[in-house]
Amino acid sequence: MQVKLNTKEKFHAITLPGPSIHAIMTEELADCLLPYLQNDIKNIVLILRDIETIDSAAAKKLLYIQQKFYEKNTSFVICELQKPVEKFLDEHELLEMMNVTPTESEAWDIVQMEEIEREMMDEDGV
Question: Can you give the CATH number for the domain in which 30 is found?
């Protein structure tokens, strides 16, 4: 899967190519994103501005990938959803389980806020 990658200090901003994500792409999607959990910079901002359609299997795989990141105390934020994709996720009751922001800038803010929370929890010995 060809993606656009922009690495920042605390996260990778990854833009998926459009126009759609389908079930047959789900393993490729996982193979593309899950290896970042092994990097020094583990947090992901996934930019979906070019995705116009998504199917149920692909959406569930995105949720699974997000959960894997949070299990490892790293951030996974999805941003810039097209209206049809947002509507599809909402109708399938997946949107509320995903960490989604309207803009890339807001996604960066979430990653930074979560990083601060993790640092504070580590200092408190929690």
Answer: 3.30.750.24
